[in-house]
Amino acid sequence: SAGMPAVIIRELDALVAITRSTQRPERLPVLLAQGRMIHRLALETVAEPADLADVNAVYRELLELHGEQPG
After folding, report:
1. Are residues 19 and 27 in contact, defined by beta-carbon separation less than 8 angstroms?
2. Helix-strand-coil percent breakdown of the chain, rounded to 5?
3. CA-based, 20 to 30 A from 37: which of 23, 55, 56, 68?
């Protein structure tokens, strides 16, 4: 999914949905770690600022679900 913001956004959206619906809190750190990896990939490969802003918006949503702050 490197350089493909639509795919990256869908992956992050999926992590948001899974995070919201998980019944096993011990899985949450793995979901957050996966989201961080995907976000790092986006930062390295998505060149278009508007696309990266869209990726960042979904990533912020994931962080907020985990009680984390972007930055």
Report:
1. no
2. 75, 0, 25
3. 23
- The whole-angstrom separation of Cα 63 and Cα 47 is 22
How far is it, in rounded angstroms, from Cα 34 to Cα 26?
A: 14
Residue type for position 57: A
Cα–Cα distance, 31 to 12 (Å, whole number): 10
Q: What is the structure's pLDDT at 69?
A: 83
CA-to-CA distance for 31 and 15, rounded, in angstroms?
Answer: 6
- Splitting the chain (71 residues) into consecutive groups of 10 residues, what average pLDDT does each group show? 90 98 94 97 96 98 91 69
d(CA 6, CA 37): 16
Q: What is the pTM of this model?
A: 0.92
